[in-house]
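Q: For a teaching handout, I want to show students what a protein-ligand complex looks like in token form. Below are the inputs, and the small molecule is flavin-adenine dinucleotide. Please produce the holo structure.
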Amino acid sequence: MGRSWLPRLVVGRGLPYFRRSEGNQRGGDALHGGEGPLRVAEQQEPRALSRAFVEACGENQIRRNDDFNGTEQEGAGLYQVTQFWGERRNGERCSAAAGYLHPAMDRPNLTVITGAHATGIVLAGKRATGVRYRAGKGEAIVKARREVIVCGGAFGSPQLLLLSGIGPAVELAAHGIPVVHELPGVGKNLQDHLDFIMGWTSKDADMMGIGLRGLPGLLRHLRRWRKDGGGMIATPYAEGGAFLKSNPAIDRPDLQLHFCIAIVDDHGRKLHMGYGFSCHVCVLRPHSRGEVGLSAPDPLAPPRIDPRFLSDERDADLLLKGVRMMRGILEAPALAKYRDKEIYTAGVSSDADLMAHIRARADTVYHPVGTCRMGVDDMAVVDPQLRVRGMQGLRVVDASVMPTLIGGNTNAPTIMIAEKAADMIKAA
Ligand SMILES: Cc1cc2nc3c(=O)[nH]c(=O)nc-3n(C[C@H](O)[C@H](O)[C@H](O)COP(=O)(O)OP(=O)(O)OC[C@H]3O[C@@H](n4cnc5c(N)ncnc54)[C@H](O)[C@@H]3O)c2cc1C
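A: Here is the structure, written as tokens, with flavin-adenine dinucleotide included.
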């Protein structure tokens, strides 16, 4: 998912790498790749419910968009998905590992160690010479002849740098870690898509749920999945989507919807009996900034994550607008036959009451970035070649290097960054 929502500068520089990574079932064109390792497919069998969502958007004057990664991002449609298509693995998830790593497993110059936890970067002064890790009970070291590339994601990468003595002096001192290199931006600048969910129960059972009513359909779909990877089992859950402008005068969407064919409560931790649907709305370019630090100097302890969601009132105001727009869509006639009871926000209508719900329930939609920000200023962690500033032989390549959060989903952009980094590493 995602291209036209990127800052224009990145589109220019990133586009060749997006195209190189993408293997779109629709084939390649000026904005898409058709042959890349990251397979992008049409959904196998989207539910009628999701098509009704797109119709409901139309009833709210939101135009149809069949390619959010085309020339226009605004509009409503069904997402394409990162799944294998037309092959033996039709309908299976094409993760970065499945698309890139698994086909390379036989290379003689590749060793993959699984079940390993990196506990620190081995340093000789300010040069990275290896990585320390724990696998099982023992600790081991992998030596690096040329570079260490940290790819722990927006939480794991700053944590590993901090554990290795690279970061803000105050944070390191608080945990008794000697400063190897003071880099005040490590862990700062955390940005994430703040998201709010509305949900309805449904008397229809042609969706994902828990109950006997949907069982015959589910068994049919399971048989289909075993046969050719098709049917509802291949659903991405978030089948429908939309990119909206909170104000027609702005030049690009600032809100995104994910429409799900199931009841989503507390990230799926709370299960509901029965059937229903949910819709997420998120703020695409939040102003709030959080941070990642250490909860302890123990490398196995989880990092301290403070997203500081809603610390900037502009995010709260925009999310409230988004919730109202989303509700208008979910209450449109096209979805009438699917709606039964509103789950969380029934009867809640004033701004103050909706805002209280937002403050109580809004949460991440899993797109953290920015904690090892790329740049050339004092707070930047990596330079434009993704090398850790002030260090040698050390790069970060993952979502943490994004200076600002992009206005869409973050998986494909992270892979684009990795494609570009591969060229930079080879050229070094
Ligand atoms: C539930 C969920 C749903 C998502 N859905 C979508 C979606 O539909 N579309 C989309 O575009 N994006 C989606 N994303 C976001 C997308 O997955 C991320 O943007 C992307 O994976 C970021 O890639 P990354 O390489 O930066 O980090 P990651 O993919 O998180 O990779 C970092 C890896 O490093 C490992 N690691 C961290 N620290 C250590 C350590 N010390 N030692 C060893 N290993 C370590 C982690 O376990 C992880 O495997 C979703 C994310 C989540 C969590």
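A: Two things your students might notice: The pocket of flavin-adenine dinucleotide is lined by residues 1, 117-118, 151-153, 156, 160, 366-367, 398-399, 409-412, 414 (CB under 6 Å). The chain has nine helices and 17 strands.
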